[in-house]
Fold these 2 entries.
Entry 1:
Amino acid sequence: MASSPSIQTIGVIGCGLMGAGIAQVAAEADFKVVVKEMDATFLEKGLARIHGAWDRALTKGKLDASRMAELKQRLAGTTDYRDLKLCDLVIEAVPEVPELKLAAFAELEKALKAEAILCSNTSSLPIGTLAAPLSPSRLSNLAGLHFFNPVPAMPLVEIVKALPTSTETIEALRGFVTALRKTPIVAPDAPGFIVNRLLVPYLLDAIRCREQGLATTEDLDAGMKLGCGHPMGPLLLSDYIGLDTMDHVAGVMFDAFGEARFKSPALLKQLVAAGRLGRKSGSGFYRWEGDKAVGFESI
Ligand SMILES: NC(=O)c1ccc[n+]([C@@H]2O[C@H](COP(=O)([O-])OP(=O)(O)OC[C@H]3O[C@@H](n4cnc5c(N)ncnc54)[C@H](O)[C@@H]3O)[C@@H](O)[C@H]2O)c1
């Protein structure tokens, strides 16, 4: 049984990069999970992403066949919000576009039971700005739950406390995150919370340096990896995050703070407009084959 008493069934909205990771780790921590996608094609792709991770673990001997069958059985997919009615906790992970998140929250307001906890995995939007479609009685159950990419590997989760979030909700989320064997920190409801407030200007600066010809992609990333002991360079990390997501996050933070360091560089916008979104599209600063960066793209 999952080891968080009040939370047993998890809903995840969006089964992309983050939603798939969240659904995967929740199932692995013995929660029942329902993932909701836009349509059958996206749902199939999202579930295949999770099943693929378990298949690879089976091949490597990290999972046995009966455990894998159990995990797959614990994970259900849907395209209908009504299938989330039994969820104790729902985590929204649709793209970082306020209109999409607000539309999802309007549907969740209708579909969820009154006591369900509702969270957004937004990287940058203040949680309070997502409250508009919710009834006043639900606001004490609204919070941010910000996972890091790749979800199965990253040990931190930021719990974001909005003004009306209750202490009970924060404590229930702390229990949930701990049950995932991750470490929670409670962050204030300001754009970018704690980690992205510091990380995003650094990544955008690296893209500006690349744009200005300071260094090649290879040297820039090697410089920060080897010179600062970072596990990966900033351009590789940007490709991992998704260049479209980076652009959206920069937009939200620039609007909020008005500081040039949060402005999305022209190069980032050009890459997104060209469909070069990083790992998810197979091309960004790097050329990708599946999850592996296999070469440098020309800029
Ligand atoms: N990429 C990162 O490194 C990262 C890290 C932390 C947080 N986040 C945040 O997580 C969220 C999701 O980012 P992502 O990188 O997973 O994006 P993504 O584009 O990989 O996935 C988003 C998914 O949402 C689905 N979707 C869109 N509308 C939907 C709807 N109405 N119902 C159900 N599904 C819907 C899309 O089909 C897609 O599969 C964003 O808010 C992002 O800022 C991203």
Entry 2:
Amino acid sequence: MPPELIAAIEAIQSLPGIGRRSAMRIAFELIKAGPLKTRHFTNAIEQLSSGVSTCERCGAYVSSRTGDDKTFCSFCDSPRRSVSSLCVVENPWDIYAVENTGEFTGLYHVIGGVLSPLDGIGPDELGMPRLAERVRSAGVSEVIVATNPSVEGNATGHYIADLLKPAGVKVTRIATGLALGQMLDFAETQAISQSLRARIEL
Ligand SMILES: [Zn+2]
């Protein structure tokens, strides 16, 4: 096998969920597709690291090439999104899992992880003071905690409730219908939808 082919297979195989056989099939298909299609593909991949950054208000993915006039993401910029409810998620990609349900019309806030004292991740690392400030200044009335259903995800939800409830903010948690340890981005849209509707107050 040519070293170029081996290198390509290894690179493709390093992606999550792709085994050796799938990696080989993709590499063969790319050879067959020819340079024009391959360039289209590699360009798109290259844009991921240089062209995608995160919204400075909520942490959602945003194009870095939108120009100076647009600093925020399409959710923050949209006049159709309700500013009174805020959905807190661990990762930017979790936004799409919630968004796919079509059930949520508010705004998002990415905290970048969950509380994990043993790993040195406390409230400051997750930007909790910034979350509290955003909730206060934007007049948010409900915060929906949509962290992954894990022990740490639940503990993070309770922390957020303790942080915001004294200010009169309703804090709810999605959980019902999702198994403990199940990642939000792998859950069925219908299950997320159900767990949003059946959210419980913390
Ligand atoms: Zn945003």
